[in-house]
Each structure stands twice: as structure tokens, then as C-alpha cells.
Amino acid sequence: MAKAKKIRTKYICHSCGTSHMRWQGVCDGCEERNTLEEEIISNNVHTKSNTSHPPMKMTEVKKSMETRFKTGIEQVDSVLGGGLVLGSLVLLGGEPGVGKSTLLLQMAKALCEQKLKVLYVSGEESQAQVKLRAERLGVNTEYLYLYSETQLESIFKAIEDIEPVVYFLDSIQTVGTKDLESSPGSVSQVRESTMRIMQFTKKRNLVAILVGHVTKGGDIAGPRLLEHMVDVVLHFEGDRNHYFRMLRGIKNRFGATDEVGIFEMKGKGLVAVANPAAYFISDSKLVSGSCFSMIVEGTQPFLVEVQALVTENDFSHPRRTVLGYDLNKLNLILAVMEKRLQIKFGEYDVCVSLAGGVKSKDPALDLAVIVSILSSIKDRRVPPEVVFMGEVGLGGEVRMISHADLRVREVKRQGLNRVYAPKRVLAQIEEEDKKVVRTINEIHEILEFFR
């Protein structure tokens, strides 16, 4: 009787990719807890090099021809740095239900209108299901091919037969190669599949757009190596119950990562938002505890409403709750207010929210958060034509902010007539814009506003 072949296994951290010979509670590489997953070791995987070019002097290397082309969606092109680049891999991450598949189908429609062949591969839906969703979005073109498959070798054969310029893979966690015994979505499958997709795509000068699931913490699921292997990492974020979706560039080898595309989800799909501030101005009726601030996402400024609610707490440990804002920053601001304004927050619950589902860590929000908290405590309404922006230091000083000129110009364009900002802002704006600026150097000066 033949002796059964022993199955060899190892344990890989799905956070950092570190390999361990046995299971343990803490990863040696990243020190994260409960991140090790069992993987079967296979000797069948042989990854070949996709290059045959010898080393060359930089001065002898010839520049390739321009290989960038537009997707047809202006906001997406802006985040990509001008469009898609042939021979590149783009990774799109986002929470379930945020609109990743909708965005891909609208990109496919725009590309097909340029008479470019596009292949949409789904590992989660059948072809009929994808078609049903595409027709709802008004996508009906002979240049778009639909394919439902999870085996990588079959997907590569379909691409060779169809010869598309761009192919979408929804999602990378559902795809696997038959050379590995582990299931799709495992660390080894994601790593090996992405490596083969990269070599296949660059050799044929195509564009691959991969969808990645995200973890509860908001990071793309799978090994961190996945983000290192691709050329562009985009994150599609937002709350399905609110207005906006933001397409943010996290990594881009072909352009800057300081641009943000803003969309609104409607019945016919995603619609680019040219003026997000208009939503807050037209829909908001400020009450006590609310004020406006101007944030910058990428190079685009837009108005947000900062809301605060301060209530007495006589029975339990005081609560600090945030929505769209950083909890640690709120704790710092409350500590500064206790020290510099002599307000005791130990007997208050404090809640801070950015209206409309907006999420931002812009330091310019600090001053508006303080104003909204004081407004709630004193139950005094802030005039809706006033905007507050400035970073607050631990000494209670109001510090300089970036893109001050863009922010002030946007305030004027929205028809608002007063901006409270640090004094150094005056040196960065035009003479005409200085008429709307009121300088503020220390947070105790805000108390004059409520007298």
C-alpha cells in the first residue's frame, strides 16, 4: 500500500504577508493579533520573469510613446492623473454597497463609446445579473463583453480570444489559479494571482482594473503586498445612506495622489458633483451647535457643516462620539479648551459630526469644531454666512492652514461674506479677498463672538 503524501502547511499573516511555520496569536512581522491563516504549500508554482531586456544606461533608454488615454469620466481621469496608462494595473477598493461595480460599469460604457473593447469579468455574479445591472445604468453596447469566471487560466484565455484594451476583474479575492490548492481569497492565491495578472497585462500592454474587498478597518483585504504590486491604488469611500461618494488616489506611479473625485449616487448611477458646497448651503438651516468650514480634498475646496452636541452627564463616564471626524483629535481639542478656556468637560457628553456623510481629517476643521462646541454649550446660533477655518495648537493658538487662497476664493464664490482664519492667511490671498477675512490668533478670542 502506497504511503499517503504528507500535506505541508504554513501560516501567513493576511496583514503583512509574513510566513510562520506554526500558528501563533501574534504575528512576528507586524505584531497584529489573530491575523495568521493556514496555507497549503504547493511545489507546482513557477513564476517566470516577464522581461528579457539586459541592463542599460539611463541615457540609452528610449522613451516610449504616449500611452495614456481618457476613460471618458472627467472626475476619474482627474484622480488617475490624466487617464489610464497602457500596461498598468489599477486596484479599486471600497466598502460593500458603496458603488464600486456601478463605477466600473459606467467606466466601461464611457470606454465603449470610444469604440474600445472592454471585458468585464465577475467572480461574484452571473452574466445575466451583470447585464441586468448594466441595463439599469443605460449600458448596452457591442464593445462590452461579460464573463463570469473565477479560474485565472480561463480568464487569460478569454482575454487572448477577445483582445480587449481594458479588462475589469470583480473581484481579485474571488479569483484563483489551479496551480495552488488553497481556496480563492487566501493570502497565497491573492498574491500569486496578482503576480500573474501583472505579468500577463504588461506583456500585452493592456489595462487591468481589479476590485478589492476591504476589511472592517477600511484596508484592502489580503496581503499588503497586493498594494505594492499594482501601479495605482484608488479608494472609493462614502456612506450608502448619504449624498456623496469620494474617489481618492492612495498610490499612483503615473501622477499625483492629491486629487479627489466627488460623486452622488442616484437611480441611474453615479453623477459627478461639480459644486458639493451647494448642497449644504441650500439644505442647511443652522441651529445652535452648527457652523460652516471650508475643507480641501486634493485641490478641490468645498463647504462642510460641522455639528456638535454637548449634553450634561450626571451618571456615567462622559462619552465622546464622532462621525466623519477623528476621535483622537476631538479629545485633543477638548483638552485644549479645558486648559485655555477653563471649561470642564468631565460632566458633559460631546458629539461631533460632519453633515452629509463627509469624512475628513483636514486640520482646518479644528477652529470650526471649537466654535460648534461653544455654540452648543451656550445655545447660541452661528450666522450661516460665516465660515471658520484654522488649525488649533496645544497652546490654544490658531495656526496656518494649506491652500488658504483656494478656500477664501471658494467662500466668496458661494456668496458668504465672513471668514475667521489665522492672521498669516492674509499674506497668501489677494488684496480683494482680504475684505472678507477676520483674523483670529488665539481660541479665547472666539468667546467675543458669543457675547
Quick take:
The protein has helices at about 75-80, 100-110, 125-135, 150-160, 185-205, 225-230, 275-285, 325-340, 365-380, 405-415; strands spanning about 10-15, 20, 35-40, 70, 85, 90-95, 120, 145-150, 165-170, 205-210, 230-240, 245-250, 260-265, 270, 290-295, 300-310, 320-325, 350-355, 385-390, 390, 400, 420, 435-440. The protein has about 450 residues and is an alpha/beta fold.
Overview of this protein structure:
24% of the residues lie in helices and 26% in strands. With 451 residues, it is α/β, with parallel strands linked by helices. It has 3 domains: 9-40; 69-272, 3-Layer(aba) Sandwich (Rossmann fold); 277-450, Ribosomal Protein S5, domain 2 (2-Layer Sandwich), CATH 3.30.230.10. The strands form 6 sheets. A 9-stranded mixed β-sheet has the order 8-7-9-10-6-11-12-13-14, with helices on both faces. A 4-stranded mixed β-sheet has the order 15-16-18-17, with helices on both faces. Strand 12 and strand 13 form a beta hairpin. The longest helix has 18 residues, at 187-204. The radius of gyration is 26 Å and the shape is globular. The protein starts with 8 loop residues before the first strand and ends in a 12-residue tail after the last strand. The mean pLDDT is 86.
